[in-house]
Amino acid sequence: MTKPIILTGDRTTGPLHLGHYVGSLRNRVAFQDTHEQFLLLADAQALTDNVNDIAKVRNNVIEVALDYLAVGIDPAKTSICLQSHLPALTELAMLYLNFVTVARLERNPTIKDEIRARGFGRDIPAGFLCYPASQAADITAFRATVVPVGEDQAALIEQTNEIVRRVNALAGRELLPEAQAVIPRAGRLPGVDGRAKMSKSAGNAIPLSASPDEISAAVRAMFTDPDHLRIDDPGKVEGNLVFAYLDAFDDDRGMVEELKARYRRGGLGDSTIKRRLDDILQALIAPIRARRAELAASLDHVIEVIRAGTMKAREVTDRTRHDVTEGLGLFRL
Amino acid sequence: MTKPIILTGDRTTGPLHLGHYVGSLRNRVAFQDTHEQFLLLADAQALTDNVNDIAKVRNNVIEVALDYLAVGIDPAKTSICLQSHLPALTELAMLYLNFVTVARLERNPTIKDEIRARGFGRDIPAGFLCYPASQAADITAFRATVVPVGEDQAALIEQTNEIVRRVNALAGRELLPEAQAVIPRAGRLPGVDGRAKMSKSAGNAIPLSASPDEISAAVRAMFTDPDHLRIDDPGKVEGNLVFAYLDAFDDDRGMVEELKARYRRGGLGDSTIKRRLDDILQALIAPIRARRAELAASLDHVIEVIRAGTMKAREVTDRTRHDVTEGLGLFRL
């Protein structure tokens, strides 16, 4: 009875925030009891569009690892590993590039969206266009069958599975398992400014290390229902940012539904729901912030965790590389 | 007084032939006394357009190594190494893909020509489009400053140097040396059918393991001057395949010039010049063929040579990878 293998991770381009917490970190803490979990500090992938700011990519390796440990990722259950230190990943990626055409990469909807979002125009770094092959290498090297992704990234898993089928067909047997995309139910947390996605670069994020004042200021500034002028007026819950956050963070579902009903009827003030949200976020972040500060004071321990996770990951990924190159019949010294 | 480093190699897609001998192998035997020479068995690059015939790529690793040793490459002076077994090469290649745009790769004249020659159309394997980055990784990983290439490949060295300058600029110091393309004076040996390029796939090659009969048959079938009907007629030397081969292989330059003069005047028969060419090619190939057969009978030795060369190459290339990742400021565990 081996546990299914799950691979996720983050590009090391900035500390993580509440959007990550809702969309993935929270689930990962649960997954580590039911799955064999690997968390990839994706510094190599981060370089595909950050080559002019390598210091950012380097410095955030530790920041992201701190976030993982602070939210409750347990190194005894989850291997936190560093992408750039796993040579099997680049070897498989280069191999897989031979199994996918340039036209296919250009057709990938995720890549198309991201190229547009980044404003690359014609100046797309080749590494960026090729990262689906790199991601296929990551997933298959760990033999991950469960890959949590945002809904905008499901196309990447399909591309991985196309490569898997190609490799298996050439080998004449199932060298690699197909992976399944798991899209979190919680969906995406909007930014504190109401934009669809929370992101550090958009300046609308609450980081996991936010101070009490930062949290309160962010909650205070959130819009609710612009037509809800007096407490007694009926208010709208849909599109109301505070309720979106309560939906994401308030564990007392019954109370949230009751508050929504009262807000719709009229008689519930914005300050009341904001106070509730503030309390909840303060209670959520306080222990994370404390643990993060404690860990940051003993970075040697954090580096040791990454080193141990990377060593375990190296064993697993080297074995896969061996199986793939042997299975495909490449020359082996 | 360290020797300059030279890197060449061959895709492992078929045994080598007289075209390789004239264009590169002969020079490499000379270079090994004046340069620190690495010869790359480029099995990974061969996969970029041979992924559906991996057995061919695998089997020709040994064939090409046999050819190297048979023509006089001395493992004590030259390191024969296997590309797929040097992880630093793929790691640097993936890194370099971030320094080059897709548009730049598509503009590369060598790539454009080769895409046309292979009839890929829109179905260019991504690995094929990306191989200039891979070649840049090969060259820089060995810190090669001298890179013999065919005249159709000079653009690849320019692309390598663009990447080198980009890396050095980011690092703020000269992490990597620029490389210089060396285009052999001898030029290209035509095929035995008179086509501009000798190649196995065109079926117009004399392999280095050709039997005496194969050599004689090839020479007999060569065209000379179609208007040179009788011995006494004046004959043309330009476009005369036999003289093209004598120019390439006959060390007695004075005698070749005298024969050309006589042929032009009239009075020299095709059978005479063909006999001379046959003698020269038989004398050239006989010891290569014998040594090749001898080596093929002790493949363990050949594999040992590749293994030792690869280990030496691994040291050199791992050091470069270390220097580059450290110099660029990537995270290091």
Features:
homodimer, 14 helices, Tyrosyl-Transfer RNA Synthetase, 333 residues, Rossmann fold, 5 strands, 56% helix, three-stranded parallel sheet, mainly alpha, two-stranded parallel ribbon
What does this entry look like structurally?
With 333 residues, chain A is mostly helical. Chain A has two domains: 5-189 and 299-328, Rossmann fold, CATH 3.40.50; 212-293, Tyrosyl-Transfer RNA Synthetase (Orthogonal Bundle). Chain A is 56% helix and 8% strand. Chain A contains 14 helices and five strands. The first copy, chain A, has a three-stranded parallel sheet with strand order 1-2-3. In chain A, β1, α1 (18-34) and β2 form a beta-alpha-beta unit. In chain A, α3 crosses α14 and α11 (241-249) crosses α13 (270-296). The model of chain A has no long low-confidence stretch (mean pLDDT 95). At the A-B interface, α2, α3, α4, α5 and α7 of A face α2, α3, α4, α5 and α7 of B.
The CATH homologous superfamily of the largest domain in chain A is named HUPs
Report the portion of residues of chain A in β strands: 5-15%
Biggest sheet of chain A: strands side by side, in what order? Answer: 1-2-3
**What pattern of helices and strands is seen along the backbone of chain A?**
EHEHHEHHHHHEHEHHHHH
Integer-rounded radius of gyration of chain A = 22 Å
Main interface: chain pair and counts: A-B, 53 and 53 residues
